[in-house]
Design goal:
This protein is an alpha+beta fold and about 290 residues long. Helix content is about 25%, strand content about 40%. The radius of gyration is 23 Å and the shape is globular.
């Protein structure tokens, strides 16, 4: 059981600059006994309102150096404070506020919300077990207008989809990776310096002057994961899900107009979904 969608903005100053971190937090616990379920005995139950207050107080006291560190701090607090907690899982996602710049000069107190994917993380721990950290990005909508096709697929009497060697590839990406057991990682450094988001975009789009052909959504998802694993050594396992949006060319013959892939309409439902999980062999064997 737990508390979901605890939303708040953490504001502090660094010199003259205001610094913001707006997050949404979920906390889920499993207790050492199920007596509240089986007997209606609530003596071990930590109220979800108490969970919410703990989240807010820790944000006030510790700040949010990174969302991963805040998730770790929450896990450690629940494990060390409440002996009846057998398992804790925390989820934190960040609102994508970016500081405004005017003529290259960063503004001291103004920000813009940029919808270029939402950064999130999870931390979980069983009592007497390791603390494990995950991170990811979701709601990342991507499109390439060419260099994509789908040919040579299995066909039977129910197949009506035509083969295409030049189509729009568009979808919303969910990507989550594991750092394994919690170590002293600089999570912001991994995110910004190793540029995991940029690794994803690079694999999706290919070189800027020519792109890279994608024979399927499945191959694109695999290429994204392979690129991240090859360039970010801290990532042990990565999962990606790409929910597809198809675009159909509008037939304008009856209107006396030739439409050569210039006006298209999205087909948002039903949509396809491709998922893949890759990991380093030594980590999976362990």
């Amino acid at each position: 059981y737990g508390k979901n969608t605890i939303k708040f903005l953490r504001l502090h100053k660094e010199g003259k600059k205001d610094v913001v971190k707006e997050v949404e937090v979920c906390t889920h616990l499993r207790l050492i006994s199920a007596q509240e379920y089986l007997e209606g005995n609530n003596s071990l139950v930590i109220p979800t309102d108490t969970m919410k207050n703990i989240v807010l107080v820790l944000a006030k006291k510790n700040g949010i150096p990174t969302i991963e560190q805040f998730a770790i701090d929450l896990c450690k607090h629940f494990m060390t404070t409440f002996c009846q907690v057998a398992y804790i899982k925390t989820y934190v996602q960040e609102v994508p506020w970016q500081r405004l710049h005017e003529n290259g000069v960063p503004h001291i107190h103004s920000f813009i919300c940029v919808p270029d994917g939402i950064r999130f993380c999870e931390a979980e721990q069983c009592r007497n077990g390791p603390l494990v950290v995950f991170a990811g990005i979701k709601d990342l909508k991507l499109m390439k207008t060419t260099q994509s096709g789908f040919e040579g697929f299995y066909k039977n009497e129910h197949t009506t989809l035509p083969e295409r060697h030049d189509r729009i590839l568009c979808g919303e990406l969910f990507c989550k990776w594991s750092y394994g057991e919690c170590r002293d990682f600089d999570f912001d450094c991994i995110w910004y310096t190793h540029k995991i988001r940029e690794c994803i975009l690079e694999a999706f789009s290919g070189p800027p002057d020519c792109g890279e052909y994608s024979p399927s959504y499945q191959k694109t998802v695999n290429s994204i994961e392979m690129n991240v694993l090859s360039k970010v050594s801290q990532v042990q396992v990565i999962e990606a899900i790409l929910n597809n949006t198809f675009y159909n060319v509008v037939d304008m013959k009856n209107l006396g107009v030739t439409n050569d892939k210039e006006v298209l309409v999205p087909v948002e439902t039903p949509y396809g979904s491709c998922a893949c999980t890759l990991g380093r062999k030594k980590f999976l064997e362990a």
